[in-house]
Write a structure and sequence with these properties.
Length: about 170
């Protein structure tokens, strides 16, 4: 009986791992559409009379993940309207020279992952596609506290607008 249950559990876990990939390939074969990479390396951007537009396709889980430029260097970030500020992982901020060993993380924060500590910084520039803003308020969280950088409201509020159209996030400056 226990052995049978172990086989069922193993089969369910295997199916959970394989079905998303299989479904993506099946969708591609039936419709001719391609499945978007989970991280857009460069959002589609275009120049308009009023400013610039960037588009990010949702990944399989519905998140808008893209490569952004922080102080001229590429990092991956998820667009997060629930984050008050652009928030960087310690590991990326350290590589960018935004924080140094010995810097104090003196701000208490509460996130979806629990309580933590952060350091407030100002980023020289943040760029998403053709959209760039200078002097962007940001937080750097303690080492290991965040898996992905967050493109929060300190960037998003400076846009003319942003909206979801279908499964694409459209940002306009």
């Amino acid at each position: 009986m226990l052995k049978s249950m172990l086989y069922v559990v193993a089969a369910v876990l295997l199916a959970a791992l394989l079905i998303p990939d299989f479904a993506g390939r099946l969708f591609e074969k039936r419709t001719g559409a391609t499945v978007q990479s989970p991280v857009a390396t460069a959002p589609e951007s275009e120049r308009m009379d009023a400013g610039y537009v960037a588009r990010i396709a949702a990944d399989r889980s519905g998140h808008y993940v893209s490569e952004i430029q922080v102080n001229g260097r590429a990092v991956t970030a998820i667009v997060d309207t629930g984050a008050s500020l652009v928030t960087l992982r310690y590991e990326d901020a350290r590589a960018l020279g935004v924080v140094l060993p010995g810097d104090k993380f003196d701000i208490s924060i509460r996130t979806a992952n629990g309580d933590g500590r952060a350091r407030r910084v100002v980023l020289r520039s943040v760029r998403l596609g053709a959209i760039t803003f200078n002097d962007v308020d940001a937080l750097v969280v303690e080492e290991g506290a965040l898996r992905t950088n967050l493109l929060g409201l300190s960037f998003l509020r400076r846009l003319t607008r942003y909206e979801v159209r279908g499964s694409t996030l459209v940002l306009e400056r």
